[in-house]
Amino acid sequence: MVATPIGNLADISERAIEALNTVDAILCEDTRVTAKLLLSRNIATPTRTLHDHNEQDRTPFLIEKLQDGARYAVVSDAGTPLVSDPGYRLVRAAIAAGIHVTAIPGPNAVVTALTLSGLPPLPFMFLGFPAPRSEARKTGFATLRAAEQAGLHSTLIWYEAPHRLIETLEDLIDVFGPEREAAVGRELTKRFEEMVRGTLTEVLEHFRTTAPRGEITLLIGPSAEDDSGAADLDTHLREALTTHSVKDAAALVAGIVKLPKRTVYARALELSRELKD
């Protein structure tokens, strides 16, 4: 598993160059993208595609070749393989078959953005891409907000497409509030690298006036130390449970705290048992 530059081709390591020169073939998402990197380093190793649409079908063939002694390097279009990129199925199958798997570390947009964001670096949680549709996206965000109300305290990180960034920031504001600390890294390591920092509202206003372009990494900081969300949820539920059934209490409180009904219902069940005991 070979990490490749996330933008600046000079970021490739000597070990990565050696590996790409000495394997039998390079498995990549898009041979045209990888060709630019290989050309810059005069690497003539043949390339083969390995992407989300063919990885499952190609894995048995690749495992057979590996068992016969072939050596492959897996790369993504940019950054570290498997991190929101193909390769997971092949690695799992290789491990199960007892085939040696190793990694050559290197650039990664998540860690790069985290170190530049000014947000707390530990703990952090990377969540891939948000759902493309607003309703599903808000549901995912609300689940995270519920986890915060249950004690999660972490910087949260996503990748996002530039044409969806504004809508995603709006949804984040709806769920996490306008004052949550945030940052957006754009075109990291490239000539027009940009890191926008501020509240979610401030970051949104920036991109409403400056159209987002290029590769996007989106971060929000952890909830405030004095966040009373968990206490508020329990207070509302205990009050509602004195006059309502568990189901009705959960439905009532879910509308107040803006959390998924199933999440509030699960907590209502726990509190109901505690009250009975």
UniProtKB/TrEMBL annotation:
Q: Name one GO molecular function term.
A: methyltransferase activity
Residue ranges annotated for the RsmI HTH domain, each copy included: 229-271
Entry EC no(s): 2.1.1.198
Catalysed reaction, written as an equation: cytidine(1402) in 16S rRNA + S-adenosyl-L-methionine = 2'-O-methylcytidine(1402) in 16S rRNA + S-adenosyl-L-homocysteine + H(+)
At the top of the EC hierarchy, this enzyme's class is transferase
Sequence ranges assigned to domain Tetrapyrrole methylase in this UniProt record: 2-203
Q: Which UniProt keywords apply?
A: Cytoplasm, Methyltransferase, rRNA processing, S-adenosyl-L-methionine, Transferase
Q: Where in the cell is it found?
A: Cytoplasm
The GO biological-process annotations, alphabetized, read as:
methylation
Does this entry carry the keyword Cytoplasm? yes
Q: Which InterPro entries match?
A: 4pyrrol_Mease, 4pyrrol_Methylase_sf, 4pyrrole_Mease_sub1, 4pyrrole_Mease_sub2, rRNA_ssu_MeTfrase_I, RsmI_HTH, SAM_MeTrfase_RsmI_CS
What PROSITE patterns does this protein's entry cite? RSMI
Query: Which Pfam families does the entry mention?
Result: RsmI_C (PF23016), TP_methylase (PF00590)
Instruction: State what this protein does.
Output: Catalyzes the 2'-O-methylation of the ribose of cytidine 1402 (C1402) in 16S rRNA.
For this chain, the family text in UniProt reads: Belongs to the methyltransferase superfamily. RsmI family.
Name-wise, this protein is Ribosomal RNA small subunit methyltransferase I
What is the originating organism of this protein? Gluconobacter potus
The opening ranks of the lineage are: Bacteria, Pseudomonadati, Pseudomonadota, Alphaproteobacteria, Acetobacterales
